[in-house]
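Repro:
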Amino acid sequence: MLAMTLIEPPAWAHPFHRLVDKAFGDDDLSLILAKRDAILAVVHQAVQSYIDDPSLTCDTEAQGFPARDRLTGEYYLGAEHYRVNDEPWFARVGRQREYRFSFEARCLELVWHENQQGQDYLGLEVHFDWLPDEGTFRFDGDVDSEAI
C-alpha cells in the first residue's frame, strides 16, 4: 500500500485557483472555508481510498493506468470549484437548487528519466454537496480521475 501525503504545491506547479459561481454566495463560501480542515481530511481519505482500490488503480504501468508504481505518494491541491446547479424546471418537480463544490488533488509522478523534472501524473477531483440550510457538507464517495 502506498501512503499518500498532502504537500504544498511544488514550485513548478500551475498556480492554485479557486473558481466560485456568483450564485454560490459569499456567506456559504465563508461557512465552507471555516470547515476546511474537516473537508481536507475527507479529501485525503478519498485520495487514499482511490489509490488503494485495485478496481481503480493498477500495481504497475504494464497493467494499465493509473499505476501505483508511477506515483511518489505525494499530492497537492491544484484547484477548488464552487458551483450551483439550478435549472428552471427544478421548481416544477419539487427539486431544490444544488450547491456543489470540489477539490482537485494532483498526484505526483516518480522521476523515471534522467532529464525529467517533477510532474503531475494523476488528477483526482473530490466532489461534495453543500447543504446550506444545515450549514454542512456531504461526501458520497464521488471522485473523478484524469491523466494530467
